[in-house]
Predict the 3D structure of the following.
Amino acid sequence: MFDRPASGTRALLVRIDFGEGQTESRLEELKELAVSAGAAVLGAVSGRRAKPDSAFFAGRGKVDEIAEQCRLTGADLVLFDHPLTGVQQRNLEQALQCRVLDRVGLILDIFAQRARSAEGKLQVELAQLKHLSTRLVGGWSHLERQKGGIGLRGGPGETQLEVDRRLITQCIKRLNAQLAKLTRTRQTQSRTRVRARVRTVALVGYTNAGKSTLFNQLTHEQLHAADQLFATLDTTLRRLPISGAQKIVLSDTVGFIRDLPHDLVVAFRATLSEAAEADLLLHVIDASNPQRDEQIDAVNQVLDEIGAGERPQLRIFNKIDQTALTPGIERDGYGRIQTVRLSALTGEGCPDLRDALAEIFPSADFSGRGSEPFCEEAGTQPFSVSPDPSN
Ligand SMILES: Nc1nc2c(ncn2[C@@H]2O[C@H](COP(=O)(O)OP(=O)(O)OP(=O)(O)O)[C@@H](O)[C@H]2O)c(=O)[nH]1
Ligand SMILES: [Mg+2]
C-alpha cells in the first residue's frame, strides 16, 4: 500500500506504437490536450511494442527510461496516450513515484475544468464516476483507508473497496436521476421546435475545427472560441435568419476527438441530443490540418455512437485562409451540394453557406425550384428536401 503521488502540472508524454504508427502527430495532439488541461509539457518518450504489458503497459526497460526522463526534466506528471487499467496506473505510479494519467483521465480532467452549466457539470461528474468505478484497485491507500484492507482477506464488515464501489453506485444513480430531469426539459423544448416547424441545423466536428467561430460568424454571437481543445462544452442554440430559407435554429456544441471516452459520450448524450436529432449536420473540418482525414473519420465514429450517423451531413471545409483552397460550394455529378469551403475567421465563403442552406431548406416562395439539391456523401442516399411542412 502506498500514498498516491500528488497531481502535478509538469508533464512528460508517453506514446507506445503497437503498429498504428503516426507517433509524431499523436504526440502533438496529446501535447495540445495536456496544454488545454493546464500542464506544461517537458518532454516525450515513445516506443514500440507488440502488445501492452499487463502490469505496466510499457515494457520494464521503457518504464526505466520514463523514470530517468522524469528525473532529468523534473516532471511530476506522466501522461499516457492510451487507456490504462487501474492496476497499470497504480503500478506505474509506484514505479515512477509521480502521478500517472491516461488519455481518458486527461480528457475527463479538461471536461471537469470547463464544465459551466448545471447539466455539463452533472454529465462530467457522471462520466468521472463511471470511469472511476471500473478502476478501483487495491494498493492506493486513499481507496482503502478502512481497517481490513482490500478484499483479499476475510474479516468483518465491508472493505473500503466495497464501500467505495457502493458509494459510487449510489452517486451514479443520483446523478442519472438529476440528469433525466434536465433531459425532460430539453425534450419539451425540442418538441416545441418541432411543433413550430423549425429546421434544426447542428454544428459538429473535431475539437478546435472552428465550430464556435462559425457559429459566431453566422449568428453575430460572441461565444467563447479559443485555440484550445474542448473550448465548448455546452450546447447553444440561436435563430439563423436566412432570406429564402425556412426558419432555422443553429446549435453549437462540444467537439469530438478520436478515442473519445465512451463514458463521456454516454454521459453527454443529453448535450449531444441536439446533433442526434438535427435536420442537418454541418460537419466542420479544419481543412488546414494535415490530420483532417483521420479527424473526419473520428467525428463520424462518434456520430455513429450517439445515433447521428444517418443524419444528413454537409461538410464545411473551414480555415481555407490557411490553405490554397478558394471559397465556394462543391457539388456532385448530379448538382447536389456536398461541401462548402469557407473561413469562419475572415468570413469568406460564409455567404455561400447561407446560399446552400437556403437551397437545402427553401421557404415556400422558393420551394418550387428543383428537388434533392443536396446529398450526404457521394454514393449515399440523397437528402430529400421537403417543402416547408407548415405550408
Ligand atoms: N485561421 C483560421 N483560424 C480559425 C478559423 N476558424 C476558427 N479558427 C481558430 O481556431 C481556433 C478554434 O476555434 P473554435 O471556434 O473555438 O473551435 P471549436 O470547433 O468551437 O473548438 P471546441 O469548442 O474546442 O471544440 C480558434 O483559435 C479560432 O480563432 C478560420 O477560418 N481560419
Ligand atoms: Mg467551440
Summary: The two ends are 71 Å apart (CA to CA). The chain has eleven helices and 13 strands. The domain at 10-110 is CATH 3.40.50.11060 (Rossmann fold).
